[in-house]
## 1
Amino acid sequence: MITRLAESLGYRVREIEDGDGTLSVGGHDGASSLRVEWKPVIVEGYTGSGSIDRFAIRTRDPGLRGSLGRLRSLLRKPKDADPVELARPIFGLLEPGYYGARVWSDANVHIEPFGENGTAWWYPDEPIGTEGTAIIPTDTWPPDDSATLAAYAEAIEEGERPLAVTLRSEPPGDEEDCAAFLIDGHHKLAAYRRTGVRPHFLDIAHLADRRPCDPGDLRDVIDGDAKLEQSAANLMRYLEDKRR
């Protein structure tokens, strides 16, 4: 069934048999984690608190930026319109399994950057700038290097549509209430925002049994912070219950 959903949304589905697992996404939307070099770096989910509906927590491990930098150095975009070919360098980094890849054009998104405490919070589908898919950055937002941003903005104004790269735990059942991790293309996305043009993505979705991420991933990114433990208590109970 999840394969049919993916194909109906324009994903080309492939089985990855020889990925090395450097990059992985686990769980389902609303309870998913992103791992880089086999360590959890971001967990997103519903709070269940009745106040802030969804949030994401990023590890404060100083090695995060180095891991993501090494990852991005491995990503190269072939000059091919086939989403499977475009995604091939990333497929080689993913853990084995089934994935879908699509070119996601004119996407309706909002960006949820992390604050100083390593968290991001948002209300889905509210007329306050959070309509559409929540894009969770994996690097500094807004990005540094104004020259790179300006070059992409100029290219977009001239009609080019460069692809940023997103990875998500499953195909979106509801584009207005879902989340995707931005693993490459922060300057491209910032340039789209500057020009007012809706962004274009190479969007990759994991196709797996609909189970939440490991509660250990959430513990790792919280790293003993008492306030974060309190904020994430309902999500932690959900993850632990589903693992029993």
Note: Residues 168 and 180 are 5 Å apart (CA to CA).
## 2
Amino acid sequence: MEDLQPWAYGCKVGRGLVVEIRPNGQKYFIVRAFQDGKEKRKHVGIYPEMSLREARIKAVEARRDIFAAPAEVKCKTTFGEVAQEWLKKRMGDKNAKHVEKTKLRLNKYILPEFKDTPIQEITSGMVLKLCRKIEARGTVETATRVKGIIGQVFRYAIATDRADYDPTAALKGALQTRRVKHMAAITKPSEIAVLMKNINNYPRFIVRCALKFSALVFCRPGEIRQAEWRIYSHGHMAVRLERD
């Protein structure tokens, strides 16, 4: 026992008894048993407060208790039911636009796949398959967002005792990441002139106006898109921006 090195792993002792060694060096006696294909775990003691001999005796009692207990009734609550409850309980105080986008992704991508599926039957493979379909359309960032929403619903389900684990936790690094292409800044007057000519010839009127306005006020794209008429002072030819 003393030779076991600190790390997050388990060392099998026999008959379902395992010594789990945590990164902090503590050694825990855990009994593992399988009932109806599902793993059951029970903590029986900590080394060296409990000797290996005592742990073996406790393990026999713990396995007897596990198999004597009635089999758990599998939760039949569907993903759709938990998702709707999560929206009401956890998203009520969020930004309206964020909630709208979340509902859109739920209704467009997630619920058509998992709405009527019992939440405990959804696996990491099923979530990955859905995300791969979204990636195949070229919407890499949407796939990541969808995985995040599914994870949030599952964490709520775990907290409310309707799921045992979050299948998205195993998908870390499994999805593509959006490649960001950084554009060099334009600093030469001749290049700025070419840019402004191209903006002036842009066919879409609203976008063309937004680009021209951006060149005048040097605001962020989000501030340009969300600007309201009340910030303009036509008499003074000025724009009044509010501090965040």
Note: The radius of gyration is 28 Å.
## 3
Amino acid sequence: MSNGSTFPPPRRPRGAIVLVVLAAVLVAAGAGYLVLRSLRGGGGAPPGAAHPAPSASAGDGNRPDKKDGKGDGSQDSGSGAHSGKGNPHGSLKGKTVLIDPGHNTRNHNHVREIARLVNIGNERKECDTTGTSTDAGYAEASFTLDVARRARTILQHQGAKVVFTQDGDRPFGPCVDERAAAGNKAHADAAISIHADGSAVGNRGFHVILPARVTAGAADTSAIVAPSRQLGERVAGRFVAVTGSAPSNYIGGGTGLDVRSDLGGLNLSTVPKVFIECGNMRDPKDAAHLTDAAWRQNAARGISEGITDFLTS
């Protein structure tokens, strides 16, 4: 019956009312006893002891910042630290990585200084060069430093110590022999020099440059040829997977790998080292990638994951 009824409620004998009240009290007492037993877990334990709160995931508080330009440590399927071999955070603890951002944004102001010849073991070459640029004027040196800084953030998040050859803090250079010496001095477990190519329109894709066997003058790459190839293969593999870029269609025969004996940064290295040409700045399609910040973040991820694979395999 609805609350709006006008019929008076029926009268009940007073004795019946007393019995009803007494029964209600007994029922309430019994229910209270059962509730108390339930809260105590039936065994006298303190309330809540039988149902501990779920603990937080060990990695939830250490997720990397996925914003562009920050340490995007997000991982996709593949090998190494991004394949589920435990928590990748800290997997590079105790490892040192040398990153060499190619060229220098101020080299063009020091043409005489960078033209000085230095000994690279099997020949003499310029201290450094200005590098290339896109047709719109985006300099290779700006690209390399940006990607290097992004890769540094990712690798540091993995626990690595990261050493730079230059961080936009030099008037020019350093020279190619100094770049090699920086990795040697740091006793780097892996070293990489980041570049972008300046080839003809239609030449597209990336390639990783490996050291040839050079034993001349101050150069002796005998001990690093094999591990450098392993490093290069892993970097190339992860670069393809993360960026979606194809291996070079003009160098390396589709492998994305090239071997050279004329680069001082490789010839004079005593630690595993490779160069990566991330794309061709003179091709408009490649240039569209190289000038895109989101793509550069992926490039840094691909490079970092390749290094991680090498160091943890």
Note: The helical segments are 14-39, 111-114, 140-157, 176-185, 225-243, 264-267, 284-290, 293-312.
